[in-house]
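User: I'm putting together a small comparison set for a docking exercise, and I want a reference complex before I start. The sequence is below, and the ligand is fe (ii) ion. Could you produce the 3D structure with the ligand included, as structure tokens?
Assistant: Of course. I'll restate your input first, then give the structure tokens for the complex.
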Amino acid sequence: MLDGFTHLSGYFAPSEQVELIKMVQKLVAQAPLFRPKMPRSGKPFSVKMTNCGELGWVSDKDGGYRYQATHPETSRAWPRMPERFLELWADVADCPADPEACLINYYAAGTKLGSHVDSDEAETRAPVVSVSLGDDAVFHVGGLKRSDPKTRLVLKSGDVAILGGESRLAYHGIDRVMKETSELIGGGGRFNLTLRRVTPLPM
Ligand code: SIN
Ligand code: FE2
């Protein structure tokens, strides 16, 4: 595995996970989950997404992968990033500026996210910091090439994973979400939050 990948198991205690999921539900009420579509083919993702922060990640057939300041369906600005998210970043990111985007993914049981690199950010010196909430997920992280060997690990509710340093541009994805492995989310499934810096750092 490349240097700079960190798995902080149980970073958030169960009571904090409850607070976080309430925040996520509030954010989703303001900025509803949408289903992004693959560039060119227009094929829908199985994962649903929304964002908070100044910028949010979106994708559709004609515009492709990108960050923008507004929700693609409501055209409203994304909700502000909760303070607790900024505190997490300050604690673990080793970055002199705040994150600008938090992508919120929702995985129903049985959904997956294919292997990809997070490469739509102009700034890759900053890490991507991820928080898992709800059902367990099998996560893989590989190398800089799609064909590089992959390490698989289970991300559990409350875990934080960091793709920083050399691993910032590593291939990664979610192989599967394991049904009924957590009671955090009514209706089941898994939320993942990824905090990102998008524009170049002032340094
Ligand atoms: C992502 O790569 O955007 C999300 C990873 C995860 O769900 O853990
Ligand atoms: Fe990613």
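The first helix runs from residue 14 to 30. The domain at 5-196 is CATH 2.60.120.590 (Jelly Rolls).
User: Thanks, that's exactly what I needed.
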